[in-house]
Amino acid sequence: MSAPSTPDDDRDASSDDHDPASPADHTPESRPDPSSATHSPDPPDDRFSRALETTRRSLPLAVLPFLASVLAPAKVATVLSSTMDAGVTFSFPSGLPTLWSFVQANGITLSGPGGLALATWLPLAAVGLLVSAVLEAAFVGGISNRVDGADAALAANARRYGPRMVGVNLVRFAVVLVALPFALLGPLVLLPVLGLGYLTYGLPFVLVVEDVGVGAALSRSVSDAVAGGPYARFGVAYLLAMFVPSFVLTVVVYGTGLIGVVLGAALVAVPAVFVVAYGVLVFRALASPDGAS
What tens digit of pLDDT does each residue of 110-120 get? Predict the structure, then answer.
């Protein structure tokens, strides 16, 4: 005859049934309101120093943004097949900042001249999307671990978040498609691109920090964006800070071809670690009831 179960036994049994690889069952109601007066994220100075310390301890992870830069066949091929004297790219933070966060490489034509032929670009872009999703999943998850002093566990994070990060890339691609009709407006196309980019840049951070699906991450990213606060400060600071590096890197990459691609990829690799470490801390604060990260 077996002994009756105790409350502790019941708790142990229920915890054993939880699958750690599945997205956590968070609900919007359990998350603090970013615009609430009681939600006070940790001081930016403390966040900055913690991100620097995490970067110092995580330098080997810089290989991932480097690889993501050079293993983007569509973008590399575009650079090698076209010319550009100078330019500036505007973008918000991402879970895997790369050379292509600073250098525009999206020249596509139907017949070839002036850019990369569409028939060539599409399969290359598909490969790049999958590769970048796996690397971004490993990168954000690994840096989140390093913030806590744990091992990066890149392979485990790639498996855990990789499929959902493919969905994040598809959302980004959809943003580009939505903005395409506005290209007829000339320079004004920047307005919808920046607006949509601002609303969705938090996707990879929310997905990893809160371990939720793409739909929930998108909803929360938009909510944080509308509320402003740390989300807005982080995004706008990044947008402004990349202006000069974007101009310089564009000149170097298009002026020196493949050598410029490799050099540019190396230059942005370590700063990418810092950006994502800081972003993880920002979104932890947004997700925490007391603003702690």
Answer: 434 345 566 76
